Fold these 3 entries.
Entry 1:
Amino acid sequence: MATLSDILTTHAGNWNLAPDRSRVTFRNKTLWGLATVTGRFTEFTGTGRADDGVTGRVVIAAASVRTGIGKRDAHLRSADFFDAEVHPDITVQVTGLDSSDGSARLTTVLTVRGVSRTIELPVDVEILDDGALQLSGRCEVQRDDFGVSGDLLGMVGPTTVLSGELVFTRV
């Protein structure tokens, strides 16, 4: 199995995100922890570069949120949550990679509603059969850290789990 160092060496260069092969999802407890809302974003773009290090950027259209319930989706796009009209993009800016202990952790800056926070994102990197790279990661964020409120009567839990399976193809 290739090490992360091997992958960076043999796959150096510029990469584009393949949205049709990728997923960006979230889940959050609601109804005072009795139920979990799951959702996905359907529109996103991204680029990356691997050389001596790793950099990249993924831009997610906040208005593309989908949970399967139209009324809830409209509420998530409102000022109570993502405020998609004022802040149309959610961005993930990759600024570095740490693989010192054998695992991979991207240093990212997540921006939601115009609020940016540094997030350490553990990822698995896989070379697919066609030479594309798949990065899979998951992290937990506190909604309040990004000004995402929408918590009627304490119904919505404070922690959101963000997940991504992003496939990049060589430019």
Note: The longest strand covers residues 115-127.
Entry 2:
Amino acid sequence: MDTRIVRNLFKEKFGTEGMLYFSPGRINLIGEHTDYNGGCVLPGAIDKGILAEIKPNGTDKVRAYSADLQAYAEFGLNEEDKPEASWAHYIFGVCREMLKRGAQIKGFDTVFSGDVPLGAGLSSSAALESTFAFALNEIYKAGFDKKELVLIGQKTEHHYCGVNCGIMDQFASVFGKAGNLIRLDCSTMEYEYIPFDPQGYKLVLIDSVTKHELVDSPYNKRRQSCERAAAAIAGNHPEVKLLGDATLEMLEEVKDKISEEDYMRATYAIQENSRLADTCEALKRGDYETVGKNIYATHHGMSKLYEVSTEELDFLNDVAKECGVTGSRIMGGGFGGCTINLVKDAYYDRFIETAISRFKTKFGKEPKVYPVTISDGARKLN
């Protein structure tokens, strides 16, 4: 990201210089719809994110400028001072959540800019929250540890942005480490760094530039399916609280007691938990072919058992297979967004060209392409 744009704008707007902070967006290699089923996820921070220049201004007001939106907001730090602009809610929310926890946050000036593509499922909002949480924690010597910064970002979403999100996005943004993914249990915040150093491979996202309108709430319906299946299993195995505790054998025992749909959803959830564990072991061995097979199996499960794919995403997955891509799947909750692809260097150019031209021929629009590298988490730059 070009720091000069932010620096020049800050000088122009506020006539001085501040400190630079950066937090990344994230990918999730495998482990989709596992968090609420008591399983783990496997995210990593990427080399795209949010950059902010920040300096205390000696007042009780925050003066913020979004370089990308070319928009300015000014607001106080009391609950009733919530700004109009939705983009400013993220900054205001972080300040409020820190104040509620006893931090002495005062007014500051800031200019920020991002190169996380919006709507691609890379968590630009978590990157924004993490940038300000990390920066203000340091500037005002608030003394929060990294896990507290994660929760500050999550509660900002819950209380000020109307999104009831989990912790994966903020966790990856704060805890990211170059050359590693993070095996994270979202319910306990226990985590382990898993080596990710795919020599001879690239990671690339292909954005279907499609977001399907969701009639009713398919996420809630799938969650309820999983909860019903887990409850049925618990009848025989009281130790099972969520599907993350269950095996396929346990599910077979109750197959005739639950609907076919609930059985399919639960099969995917249990299989995905074991795929994630298997993928972590494969990564520790440097076995990227097994990793790739598991990624394809996740796509199949999300498409056929969990039924959260789209025609566009299935098409991109088929093209990846035909082009010899090692692993490809939908990334994120589904119903639109990107595929994440693990591609050998030798096949990369041909795959990108083929995916763009064939997608454009079939759907009449070009997909977007985002190469990503696994990188460090929130940090001060200067």
Note: Residues 260-285 form the longest helix (26 residues).
Entry 3:
Amino acid sequence: MDYRAISVPATPTHEFDEDEQWKSVFTALQWIQFLMATLSIIGSSSIIVYAVFQRSVRSPEVRPLFYLSVSDLLLGFCWLVGASLYGKTVKNHNIACYNLQTTGQIFYMSSFFYTANYTWQLYIDLKDKINNVASVHSSLLRRMAIILSSFLPLILMIPVFSFGNANECYQNYSQLHSHRCLLMHDAPPVNISGDLGGFNTDACTGVHFYGLGAFLVTFMITSITILVPLFKVCSVQRRYVQIAGPSDSHQSILISVAERRVVLYPAAFFYCWGPAFILGLVKLFYYNEHGTVYMILYVFQAFTATSQGLLNCLVYGWTQNFYRYLKRGTCHDASTQTPLLRTQKKKYESLQPARHKVDGTTNTLA
């Protein structure tokens, strides 16, 4: 027998290099996700503790933000546990990671709805402040929005829980996708052997694309819901600038703070979930995980998707400091004027043309 004719096929070297490269990327993602999830937990907890100590949880203005922070807090814990489980060998590791990912999707879909609800509440409050009227919107509608934001994501994810666990869709992830506890989106399951118990490739593929589609659809619905009040704010503000005369300084401060919150919270939302949405679209149409594009999107997702609690805390803290700064400036201006000077100032403002009064009001809001 001529052993020289027998040749062992060589494994391409670039496959080993690519595997090592992905392994280093996932290791970096683990630490990024761990750090950002910790910061997000701290940020969400800060808002919750502040609202509790201020006894403002039940107020219509703070309640949507409070529930949004609770959702971000629970999501942050999911991210943190997922990063801790990466690379660990524990009992029922596959089942834990699969259900942890599904639970995390419930929380970030709930965070989507809470963000849309809070943006609309900010817009309604801003409109009421500009019109200088008390809010006439029913508290029942506000509570219904909070209830839907809490239970609708759970209802949407019941098929993923039930069909995924019933068909044991987590079984083949043990070898192919050891990073599943880290990331939002897994690749579709592939049945590489015939002894996987109750594993059903077709059912698990359907469950996978259902979960991915639910994320993409809820993101687009939330984006549209958020953009509508943003465009309305521009028209309302233009009307206010045109008709506004001399107004109460404290009212102008409240309007200015509300304007910034209406813009900044949606901006934080798009920053956090935009990369994850793009990655979901890429996986929907081309789900073979190769190339530099996937690495870049995974890194962006690790930085942004886990940071919503932190960014919401920064936005709330900055606008609160901005409110105190404007209020302190107004009080300082009033304390340095005599009653005669304040009377002269009001009389002077009433004698100015409408354009100057509008400019003065605009400067106050800025």
Note: The chain has a mean pLDDT of 76.
